[in-house]
Amino acid sequence: MNTGTRRRFLATSLAALLAGTAGAVLYPLLRYLAPRRTDTAQRAVRIPLAEIPDGTAKFFDFEGKPAVLVSSKGKLVCLSAVCTHLGCIVQWQKDQGEFRCPCHGGRFTIDGTVVSGPPPRPLAKLPFTVVNGTVTVG
Ligand code: FES
Hints:
Blueprint: H1 3-33, H2 40-43, E1 45-48, E2 57-62, E3 65-72, E4 75-80, E5 91-93, E6 98-100, E7 107-108, E8 114-116, E9 128-131, E10 134-137
Antiparallel strand pairs: 1-10, 2-3, 3-4, 5-6, 6-7, 7-8, 9-10
The structure holds FE2/S2 (inorganic) cluster.
C-alpha cells in the first residue's frame, strides 16, 4: 500500500469513526429533548359497548395507566382505576355496586365518590363518548 492510499484509508476510517460516535451521542440526546406526542387521536381508546354488559366493569390502559369503564343500571361511567390514596388499583365489586381498593380498604361509589377509607379524593373521571355502539375514551 503506498503512502497516498494509506492516508486516504486512514482519513476515511477516521471520518467514519467520528460520524458513528457523533450519531451515538446525538441520537439519545435528541430523543430526550424531542417533545412527546400528545395527539388525541393516538391516545383515544375504543371499546365496543357489548363488552360492558350491565353490572360489569371493563379495565383497560389509558395513557399508560389503568382505567375502568363500568355499566350499572343503564349508567355508564369511565374512571381512572388508580386509588387516590397511595395508587393501588381499585376493583369493581359487582354485588355491592362499588369500587374497593385492596390495599387499605378504600371504597368508592360507581361514579368514583369516596364512601369510606383513607382515599382523600374521588377517582378521576375520564371523558368518553358513545357512538354507534362504541365507547371512545379520551
Ligand atoms: S391505596 Fe387505596 S386505600 Fe390506600
